[in-house]
Amino acid sequence: MKGLYTIVLLCLSNAFMTLAWYGHLKFKELKWFENLGLVAIVLISWGIALFEYFFQVPANRIGFKGNGGPFSLVELKVLQEVITLLVFMLFTFLFFKNESIRWNHLVGFFFLVVSVYFIFKK
């Protein structure tokens, strides 16, 4: 159960982080964001990223073997990276419809998933 909680929390944390890192690229389409300077956009993104920590820190604490969780640090990091990629791709397809995936992206994603297999192999 701790493994599932960890994965759900990592997905939530990545949703906020992806919005903070890339969401501002769509802000210019919103009327009240169009005249904001870079400092204001950075502060807004930083505020969004704060929520990422509300999920990321508990995910790592719950999931880490040293705290009774099922994952080693390496396993947590690899999970984080794959979840980041999945959340990013979902975000891209939903909000940046002009982006496309090419064959080399798919090959790269495949190797990332294969890396998860090897990291978790006992």
UniProtKB/TrEMBL annotation:
<feature type="transmembrane region" description="Helical">
    <location>
        <begin position="102"/>
        <end position="120"/>
    </location>
</feature>
<protein>
    <recommendedName>
        <fullName>DMT family protein</fullName>
    </recommendedName>
</protein>
<dbReference type="Pfam" id="PF04342">
    <property type="entry name" value="DMT_6"/>
</dbReference>
<dbReference type="InterPro" id="IPR007437">
    <property type="entry name" value="DUF486"/>
</dbReference>
<keyword id="KW-0472">Membrane</keyword>
<keyword id="KW-0812">Transmembrane</keyword>
<keyword id="KW-1133">Transmembrane helix</keyword>
<feature type="transmembrane region" description="Helical">
    <location>
        <begin position="36"/>
        <end position="55"/>
    </location>
</feature>
<feature type="transmembrane region" description="Helical">
    <location>
        <begin position="76"/>
        <end position="96"/>
    </location>
</feature>
